[in-house]
Design a protein that fits this description.
The chain has helices spanning about 5-15, 25-40, 45-60, 70-85, 115-125, 145-155, 170-180, 200-210, 225-240, 255-265, 285-295, 300-310, 315-325, 330-340, 345-350, 360-365, 370-380, 385-390, 395-405, 410-430, 435-440, and strands at about 100-105, 130-135, 160, 185-190, 215-220, 245-250, 270-275, 280-285. It is about 55% helix and about 10% strand. Helix 7 runs parallel beside helix 8 (about 200-210) and helix 14 packs antiparallel against helix 17 (about 370-380). The protein has an 8-stranded mixed beta sheet, with helices on both faces. The protein starts with a helix and ends in a 10-residue tail after the last helix. The protein is an alpha/beta fold.
Length: about 450
């Protein structure tokens, strides 16, 4: 999970602040040492760490505690405020040309995930009611054009290509005419990368920039590369001039130092972050929300947005009606489970709920993984429509057939049916989500 190590260390450091009245220098020594070590171990740039600690200390030292805040809360507020500033202060949105099409040029080193990110960006813009067109400007990497075409087919987004024998500059130039003819309002140009920064690469990118005058030049960097990502950002900005960054694989980087350092070092904001492998796993970067996540305070706004974007309101109301009439079936449950899966991994969802970030570790220890949902789905799909609608008819022979059909044990089928019935009763009794949550919710049939 993103920032997992840093989040845990920072929260532990903040817990060290105690006392009343004024915060003294002695109060700050040990906790700030822990904060410093947490940031350095998260691969945050040394100068950035030094400045951050200095600002926190300056604000906290001798400050009168707000009447409504104890010293512990005061420090949380100061660290939160400074983290927000470190991450960029406010959200930096993508530029939109008043006269379409908006031209977005993706640049970066080979292996950073530019082509996949181009597809994710097209998906993101489609959800914003834009009509994007992908441009295959990487004519050097084998299969890069094919990869972009496959993504375009999946997204139902046009892909412009002239093959690998035409120069990327000419491809970009002709792409603009094509976008006009297709009435596309956004052009996403996928460019070639190299294993390292060299003059040949930069010359080509400068030529493309000079030809199409992009409204956004976004550098795609891999969060897993740590400080190297910041170094790459500095180089691309000085050689080419970038408008912002897209940080990929942030969900897999437990440190997150690249995101914490890049704005302070380069002056360029992180605009979007990749939080998974799926095409819908690209989201806008909100410094205030990310700071809240890091400090274990959750991110309710992002969770609400995820729910709003993935939940079918009509289906949800129908489910509620059937539940009241005691008509809730395994068919509806499967449908609801698929809605939940669209929100992302259990770990991601828990990280957005205040105070629930630590639960993800307990889930790991209990061996609860994403495959639990797949197993439940496999069992339900092995049933006939009649069995899903009326689980009471599932006798011994049907259970054996269902188990054989999905490659599970009869005990697994029994456990699913038992837990489904228990959950139905619980959901009938509950009065509000709080009571439901306090009783544990739906039991996954493979957990203990």
């Amino acid at each position: 999970m993103a920032f997992e190590n840093l989040s845990e260390r920072l929260q532990n450091a903040i817990k060290m602040f105690r006392g009343a009245g004024k915060i003294t220098e002695d109060d700050l020594k040990a906790p700030l040492r822990e904060v410093r070590m947490a940031l350095l171990e998260a691969d945050v740039n040394f100068k950035v760490v030094k400045d951050f600690i200095g600002k926190v200390k300056e604000r906290a030292l001798g400050a009168e505690v707000n009447e409504s805040l104890n010293p512990h809360q005061q420090i949380i507020k100061i660290v939160n405020d400074e983290l927000i500033q470190l991450l960029g202060g406010t959200q930096s949105k993508l530029a939109v040309s008043p006269k379409p099409p908006t031209i977005i040029m993706l640049v970066g080193l080979q292996g950073a995930g530019k082509t996949t990110t181009a597809g994710k960006l097209a998906h993101y813009l489609k959800r914003k009611n834009k009509k994007p067109m992908l441009v295959a400007g990487d004519v050097y990497r084998p299969a890069a054009i094919t990869q972009l075409q496959v993504l375009g087919e999946q997204l139902n987004v046009p892909v412009f290509t002239l093959g690998d024998k035409v120069s990327p500059v000419e491809i970009a130039r002709q792409a603009i005419d094509k976008a006009f003819s297709l009435a596309c309002d956004t052009i996403i140009i996928d460019t070639a990368g190299r294993l390292h920064i060299n003059e040949e690469l930069m010359n080509e990118l400068r030529d493309i920039k000079g030809t199409v005058n992009p409204h956004e030049i976004l550098l795609v960097v891999d969060a897993m590369t740590g400080q190297d990502a910041v170094t790459v950002a500095e180089s691309f900005n000085s050689e080419l001039g970038i408008d912002g960054l897209i940080v990929t694989k942030l969900d897999g980087d437990a440190r997150g130092g690249a995101v914490l350092s890049v704005k302070a070092v380069t002056g360029k904001p992180v605009k979007l972050i990749g939080m998974g492998e799926k095409l819908d796993a690209l989201e806008p970067f909100h410094p205030d929300r990310m700071a809240s996540r890091i400090l274990g305070m959750g991110d309710i706004l992002t969770l609400v947005e995820k729910i709003q974007s993935t939940t079918d309101l009509a289906k949800a109301l129908e489910m509620e009606k059937k539940l009241r009439k005691d008509e809730f079936t395994l068919e509806q449950f499967l449908d609801q489970m698929q809605q939940v899966k669209k929100l992302g991994s259990l770990e991601t969802i828990l990280g957005l709920i205040p105070g629930m970030g630590g639960i993800s570790q307990k889930l790991k220890e209990a061996n609860v993984d994403e495959k639990e949902f797949d197993r439940i789905e496999a069992i339900i799909r092995s049933m006939t429509p009649k069995e899903r609608r009326n689980p009471d008819i599932i006798n011994g022979s049907r259970r054996k057939r269902i188990a054989a059909g999905c490659g599970m044990r009869v005990q697994d089928v029994n456990k699913l049916l038992k837990n489904f019935e228990e959950s139905k009763k619980m959901m009938k009794k509950m009065q509000g989500m709080a009571k439901f949550a306090s009783k544990g919710g739906f039991k996954l049939p493979f957990t203990h």
